Amino acid sequence: MKEIKIVVVDDSPFSVAMLTNILISRGFVVAGSANSLEEAVEAVTTLKPDIVTMDMTMPGADGIECTKAIRAVCPHLKVIIVSSMMDDEIVHRAQKARISGYVQKPVDEEELCLLIQRIMSDDELFLQLDGLYYNAFREALADTFNKFFKSVPDFQEKQTTREEQVSRGMSVVMGIIGKYGGRMILDMSEEAAENIAKFLLKKEEVTKDQIVNVMGEISNIVAGNACSLLNKSNSLFGLRVAPPTIVYGECIKISKTVLDTVSSAKAETDFGEVYFNVGFNRGVN
């Protein structure tokens, strides 16, 4: 694991000293400390730490307000609340602020250090997922089409756009759960979906329910196979799929993503264009 740089934010010189001694003794780099919101913002801006330990009570602000201020400078900064108080209300507020963890004073050295290592490992694991997931989903889509239709889609260039998309007629949304949550969207015209269903069911006419069932199962296979490929790369991902949500309508907008990472591509198939979009969130960390 890379060297981990930490800034300690606490208005108590005693607490700063105690935390600093613990962290240094366990091999972490304490780049600096801060005793107020203003000092914390300056320290984060200047020192660019990997993690900030944050007391809940400081002059003129609490730990949640201070976290919001430093996140304005560094949106993905990891923050650990270190406080003598740790009741349900504080935990709830911390979760809403996407705090990475909580440790109660007096600090247990082992608990704090294991928490830091877990958070940073999570970050590295997410970066690993970020480098793998697009190819895994593309391979799963290509393999599924090849096995069902004996043809491989012609993929256009990968895109990482977060712009809102308008559905081509039918969207299948597959939720993905596990170490990190995400979702896959397969979108196509109603005609393309109908022709796929006719081909697989070997029927001249198909009902809307039959189309929905076919496209839902194809999407489930694509997402499930992709998750299996990723889990083989690293079992810590623990990814699995949730049941599909299927929406009809050419004027329906595919929501602008709020995921931390997203990739998409258009694929030309024998049945028409299929747009696929997949992405993941880091989670509360």
What would you note in describing this structure?
The chain is α/β, with parallel strands linked by helices and 285 residues long. The protein has two domains: 5-107, Rossmann fold; 135-280, CheC-like (Chemotaxis protein chec), CATH 3.40.1550.10. It has helices at 13-25, 37-47, 63-73, 88-96, 109-149, 190-201, 208-233; strands at 5-9, 29-34, 51-54, 57-58, 61-62, 78-83, 101-104, 154-155, 165-166, 170-177, 182-188, 240-241, 245-248, 253-254, 261-269, 272-280. Strands 8, 10, 11, 12, 13, 15 and 16 form a seven-stranded antiparallel beta sheet that branches. A five-stranded parallel beta sheet has the order 2-1-3-6-7, sandwiched between helices. Strand 4 and strand 5 (61-62) form a beta hairpin. Helix 5 packs across helix 7 (208-233) and helix 6 crosses helix 7 (208-233). It starts with a strand and ends in a 5-residue tail after the last strand. This is Stage 0 sporulation protein A homolog. Pfam families: CheX (PF13690), Response_reg (PF00072). The modification 4-aspartylphosphate is found at residue 55.
How many independent structural domains?
A: 2
Structural class: alpha/beta
CATH topology of the largest domain: Chemotaxis protein chec
What is the assigned CATH homologous superfamily of the largest domain?
Answer: CheC-like
Which word captures the global form? elongated
Number of contiguous helices: 7
**Average pLDDT score:** 90
Radius of gyration: 24 Å
The CATH architecture designation of the largest domain is: 3-Layer(aba) Sandwich
Q: Roughly how much helix do the residues carry, as a percent range? A: 40-55%
Give the total of beta strands: 16
Order of helices and strands: EHEHEEEHEHEHEEEEHHEEEEE
